[in-house]
Design brief:
This protein is α+β, with helices and mostly antiparallel strands. Helices cover 17% and strands 38% of the residues. The strands form three sheets. The chain has a five-stranded antiparallel β-sheet.
Length: 187
């Protein structure tokens, strides 16, 4: 997993509006799954807009997907990150420290979801679903049950916007755990 820049990069007026929209939804103090749903509604309105990110925030890394911290709320209640994926780049199988909402800003991302299954004294992963998210698609989740791998399976750059219910500038990442277990794939 890559670590986002420690401090937010320059913002755009649209990103500032997104922060206000997310702040309103998070400020309601609702349960994590409901908060994720409300944040997703607000994020969707900004996806695909040419003025959401600066040119620097659209830059990838040839070695791994790149994270750009767009905003970390002072009280630690949420963070907004842009992830830039070059073709073929992917995450490890992982879960998260908090609720998360993801929206595809540009391109297409493939996601494989897993569940953890006890297997005697150990455990294994079982793939449960493959999802393809195109530009404008939004999905959200809240732990537990948020184990997945995300991949740019298209031939161009993909950019997604992630809103986490945690301060990733302080934590360094939204990832709670990386899974290095046998994985049973979808048949």
């Amino acid at each position: 997993m890559t670590t986002p820049t420690a401090t937010p990069t320059a913002t755009t007026a649209r990103t500032a509006r997104l922060v206000v929209d997310v702040r309103e939804a998070v400020g309601r103090g609702l349960p994590p799954d409901t908060t994720a749903y409300l944040v997703g509604e607000r994020l969707a309105a900004h996806l695909g807009a040419s003025d959401l990110l600066t040119p620097e925030q659209r830059e990838g890394d040839p070695d791994r997907y790149r994270q750009h911290l767009l905003h970390a709320e002072r009280d630690g209640s949420f963070s907004i990150v842009a992830l830039v994926w070059l073709p073929g780049q992917q995450t490890a199988i992982h879960d998260h420290v908090s609720w998360c909402v993801t929206g595809v800003h540009e391109g297409t991302e493939s996601e494989r979801r897993y569940r953890l299954v006890p297997d005697g004294t150990t455990a294994r992963l079982v793939a449960t679903e493959d999802v393809v998210n195109a530009q404008g698609d939004v999905c959200g989740f809240a732990p537990p049950g948020d184990i997945h791998r995300v991949r740019n399976s298209c031939s161009s750059t993909a950019i997604s916007i992630h809103v986490y219910g945690a301060d990733v500038s302080r934590l360094g990442s939204s990832v709670r755990r990386v899974y290095d277990l046998p994985a049973e794939e979808i048949r």
